[in-house]
UniProtKB/TrEMBL annotation:
The lineage of its organism: Bacteria, Bacillati, Actinomycetota, Actinomycetes, Micrococcales. One of its GO terms (molecular function) is 16S rRNA (guanine(1207)-N(2))-methyltransferase activity. It comes from the Bacteria. Its EC number is 2.1.1.172. This is 16S rRNA (Guanine1207-N2)-methyltransferase. Pfam families: MTS, RLMG_N. Residues 197-369 form the Methyltransferase small domain. Residues 9-178 form the RlmG N-terminal domain. Keywords: Cytoplasm, Methyltransferase, rRNA processing, Transferase. SUPFAM superfamilies: S-adenosyl-L-methionine-dependent methyltransferases (SSF53335).
Length: 374
């Protein structure tokens, strides 16, 4: 069971909060319940949690007695939500947020995992656990049935000799993996497209390719924009694998670019992309929720392909949150170049939050706009 902590008291903040967007769900509760017996036998530091949305697994396990929990959450907003929930509900919980690498799982005997939707992300997680965790590690990997496929079982079987499937409960299910095999640690996928080297670890948006929205944006970016200096770098906001940042740096030798994403796997991928293209010394890649590291009124040009998911949920509140921080960082007269699915009708929001907005390009699915900061 999930101990004394009432998971319904968890919040998603600083991530988007809205009716229907929950901080804990039935899958979190099922993972905790299925793993309860195994966790009871653990010593300090023997539990790892991966993919915890907002702290349900970490704090649920801490409430049941787990100490020294190691945690990896891909979005930085998830880390912040876990820390905020711990301060408010369980200040005595002991945990540390770590990257997805050997140190996260070394010696771990139980791993609690919220299944990612990307099979490549799951493969990278499974390989990391199998390569570095204790030989007797047991992985409790759960999710909502509507987001699970039998291919996930196959991915886990590629890294573990035994995978069992629990009965479904409340439209959730848990896969239990045991006996890790001999698998190498994960490496970035690689592709060369239109002369650009792209590197992507599992779960990075678009993977080792250029999605059609970004391709339209690249084809229409201004040829001689203002900025591009150390004091006023061009900003690739929500950079993903860093395709825009790397393209800018290649097109404009000597220019400075700042690429930002809250996803740990995106930042790792973007850094690998910069190295592969020989522009690592001119592109700063930062893991940041929004653009909190950038001062007000400090940029002349920002490019953005905004996400429209908050976790597994589609939400129209994600992009306006990014627009507002772009408005804060842009200088008066600076421009936000944005590509978006035309059906989302972002132009009124861009006009309201940034300023006058003009259409630059449009194809059957996407629109590129440039908004000038008032």
């Amino acid at each position: 069971m999930s101990g004394a902590l009432d998971l319904s008291h968890l919040r998603r903040w600083p991530d988007v909060e809205a009716p229907g967007l929950v901080a804990a769900d039935a899958a979190d509760r099922l993972i905790l319940d299925e793993s309860g017996g195994a966790r009871a036998a653990l010593g300090p530091g023997e539990l790892t949690v991966i993919g915890d949305g907002y702290g349900a697994l970490t704090l649920g396990a801490a409430a049941a007695g787990a100490e020294g929990i190691r945690v990896h959450q891909d979005p930085l907003s998830g880390e912040a939500a876990l820390a905020a929930n711990a301060r408010r509900l369980m200040p005595q919980a002991t945990f540390a947020s770590l990257p997805l690498d050997a140190a996260l799982v070394s010696g771990a005997r139980v791993v609690l995992l919220r299944l990612p939707r990307s099979l490549e992300a799951l493969a990278d997680i499974a390989a990391t656990v199998a390569a570095a965790a204790s030989p007797d590690v047991v992985v409790y990997a759960g999710g909502r049935v509507k987001h699970m496929t039998t291919a996930m079982n196959d991915v886990l079987r590629g890294a573990f000799e035994r995978v069992d499937v629990t009965h479904a409960r409340a439209k959730s299910r848990v896969l239990i993996a045991r006996t890790p095999g001999a698998v190498p640690p994960p490496e970035a996928r690689a592709a060369r497209i239109d002369g650009l080297e792209i590197r992507a670890f599992g779960g990075a948006f678009a993977g080792a390719r250029i999605d059609i929205g970004t391709r339209l944006l690249l084809a229409n970016l201004p040829s001689s924009p203002a900025g591009g200096t150390a004091e006023d770098p061009w900003i690739d906001f929500a950079c993903g694998t860093g395709v825009v940042a790397a393209t800018w740096a290649r097109r404009h030798p000597g220019a400075r670019v700042y690429a930002s994403d809250q996803s740990a796997v995106a930042v790792a991928s973007a850094n690998a992309t910069m190295r592969a293209n020989g522009v690592f010394d001119r592109v700063e890649v930062a893991r940041d929720d929004l653009l909190s590291r950038r001062p007000d009124a400090s940029a002349s040009l920002i490019a953005l392909n905004p996400p429209f998911h908050s976790g597994a949920a589609v939400s129209d509140r994600v992009a306006p949150r990014l627009f507002r921080d772009a408005a804060r960082v842009l200088r008066p007269g600076g421009e936000l170049w944005c590509v978006w699915n035309s059906a989302l009708r972002y132009r009124p929001e861009l006009e309201r939050i940034i300023g006058p907005t003009r259409q630059i390009a449009r194809d059957p699915k996407f629109t590129v706009t440039a908004s000038t900061r008032r």
